[in-house]
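Escalated from tier 1: fructose -6-phosphate holo job.
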Amino acid sequence: MCGIVGYVGEQQALDVVVDGLRRLEYRGYDSAGVAVLDATGPRLQIERRAGKLANLEAALAQGRLAGTLGIGHTRWATHGAPTDRNAHPHTDCSGAVAVVHNGTIENFADLREGLEARGHELTSDTDTEAVAHLIEERYAAGEEGDLAAAVRGVCASLEGSYVLVVAHRDHPDLVVGARRNLPLVVGIGDGENFLASDVTAFIAHTREARALDQDQVVELRREGVVVTDLDGVEVGGECFHVDWDTAAAEKAGFDYFMLKEIQEQPDAVRDTIGGRFGLDGRLRLDELSISDEDVRGFEKVFIVAAGSSYHSGLVGKYAIERWCRLPVEVEMASEFRYRDPVLDRHTLVVAISQSGETADTLEAVRHARQQRAWVLTISNTVGSSMARESDAAFYTRGGPEIAVASTKAVMTQLAAVYLAGLYLAQVRGTRDPDEVRSHFRDLETVPALITEVLSRMDATRKLARDLSGEERVLFLGRHVGYPMALEGALKLKELAYVSAEGMPAGEIKHGPIALIDKGTPVVVLATRHALQAKLVTNIQEIRARGARTIVIATDGDETVIPYADHLIRLPDTKSLLSPMLTLVPLQVFAAEFAMARGLDVDQPRNLAKSVTVE
Ligand code: F6R
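Tier 2 regenerated the structure:
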């Protein structure tokens, strides 16, 4: 949600910034803009446009903005409609300061009122513009030309969440950035430095990076980077090396990132589970500051997450309860902290988030820690806010996920929740080491099985195209099939904009069965497990009422044949692990269905990749 890029160096800033914005497109946006400093003026040259980057580039083609310092922004509208006027960068009264901003300033109305009373003229509906004027005031008054000090002073007066990146026409070698609650990463180059919402924006130039911590301000110059707290005291911090390259963030011949990411799943799972056992033969997490004694003291687990990550969490409940005999509650992060959950030193909260930046989940993590619960984050993003603010982190090693709809990240989250369950079982002694190993070996067979499933998807694609005129599809599952029914429905909703609903198959007779009419497509997740016989009965019930049944079943299972209008066969695996196979046809079905409707499956309407507002 909103992408930010800043650059100072020897290259033409416009090229670096626009390229960076393109790489951040996946975050979702509805307008874009840049500011480039013309040092000879000196003056800030600004261009901004509603709509996609192509609109901005068309405007820029009229006259290129020359200069080696620039900032850029893709905006996902919160305050004010997505128009040219509201697009970032925003400036102060004299056009000396340019600001791009991600987040929401909660005391914006008060700040704006004060500024207007003091004679400032604000021309947009955004909260961001107020920040530009506040910097103007501080710069002129108290701080006497010290841009970083002016930004620090303004930050102290802001309420809410923000990343700010600021340029000033009198500073041809300085970009200032600041963050609270949202991510900002510094890219460290040679004679050039970068700022961005995430490393994707600058990995074509450097793979050395440093993530800013809460309430820090960075001064970015050609020759170096200085990070301070809000009092101006310099703070240390660790750099990290990004171990994937630009090729990993490109389409590699696929029409959409999503299709590429679906194909990458076997490798993503292999990478996620690889090297997890230490020399002592015990399973380990990536970062851990919880002692074994504290792990043995857990009395309850909450799993908090949003969207698809929540569905992975639902599967995690089955694994942890089965292997650890610990009660697990799974909760949507947006609801969690507002109901005042009962948390204490004997509670483990597992936060699951691809980005590690989702505001709802991050706030749930903070709430849990305030209540003294332990927090383990499962995330695909090393150094993300959630991982940094937790007691333990488990990284899914899925590589960059660019398509807005999550695929390989969900797949690796499933692997991660199984491993987290086995880790807890190992430390708490609820499963002996041989059994932990044996479950791990089962998991190791999954990447090859996913490859096998991917090779069988032609019939699923054809079926999706045939059904793409339908406006309503139901998904049913039982046990671990139920979370995947929810995921199948979410994928179809967000990609194809049809009404799709996932339900527990046993629940349908308590009401939803009234939705079934002649020809209603119903996808049933019926891979082999303990509830198979009951599920077959459920398929009969809906078919008797006219449903067109699409049954996902295990190879060799004959029981479903009489009731399946369409059959999607999957290889056999342990029933607890079956979501990692059923997920694949659900993803392929949704993508193909949407593409048959002529839709862009990488950037569905109204959605953002990383949802950084509550
Ligand atoms: C759906 C999807 C979203 C995310 C949700 C949480 O395809 O991608 O539902 O799963 O916004 O995002 P993370 O995992 O980054 O916290």
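The chain has three domains: 3-248, 251-444, 454-596.
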